[in-house]
Amino acid sequence: MHLAGALLPIDRLWPDPAHHRARLEALAARLAAAGLPAEIVPAEAFLGGGSAPEAPIPGEAIALSDEPEISRRLRRGPAPVVGYLREGRLLLDLRTVDPEDDGALGEAVVLAYSGAP
Question: What is the pLDDT of residue 1?
């Protein structure tokens, strides 16, 4: 679900590559402007929380450093954010975020890394 409370359609797992890349680049630039090194990395998604573990969906996500307490601050922030950890980094997959919420996501990440509870 996104901030407006509506369900996200399943076809968001297979976004238009150019549009998806543009969203990732915009978020990475916003985070970099706030002093947070964000990298666009390959990231596989899976249907149903792993119900089809042998059928990954290729894609890309934003990778950030996983500093202590960041995941907790993101989950407890004014606009809760849930990422996942891979290889010691926090990944944020925009396929699970409504494009209308990209700005709120950026604000939530900057706030969490600033040390806000």
Answer: 41
